[in-house]
C-alpha cells in the first residue's frame, strides 16, 4: 500500500487563506441533535465532503 498524503484545510489557531471557512452549527442556527452515536475506536483518518444542496459561497447563504 502507498502512503496517504493528508492535508488539513482548517485549523482554528492558524486559518489558511485558500481554504474554506467552517461555519459552526450555532452560527447557522442548527437544532440540537436528537441523538449521538459514539465510536468504539478512533479512525486513522476521515474525509468530510458536503454532498447536498447548491453551492454555498458566503456565510449568509
From TrEMBL:
One of its GO terms (molecular function) is N-acetylmuramoyl-L-alanine amidase activity. SUPFAM superfamilies: N-acetylmuramoyl-L-alanine amidase-like. One of its GO terms (biological process) is peptidoglycan catabolic process. It comes from the Eukaryota. InterPro entries: Amidase/PGRP_sf, PGRP. This is N-acetylmuramoyl-L-alanine amidase.
Amino acid at each position: 500500500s502507498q502512503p496517504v498524503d493528508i492535508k488539513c484545510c482548517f485549523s482554528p489557531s492558524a486559518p489558511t487563506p485558500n481554504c474554506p471557512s467552517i461555519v459552526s452549527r450555532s452560527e447557522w442556527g442548527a437544532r440540537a441533535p436528537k441523538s449521538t452515536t459514539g465510536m468504539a475506536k478512533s479512525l486513522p483518518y476521515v474525509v468530510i465532503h458536503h454532498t447536498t444542496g447548491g453551492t454555498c459561497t458566503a456565510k449568509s447563504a
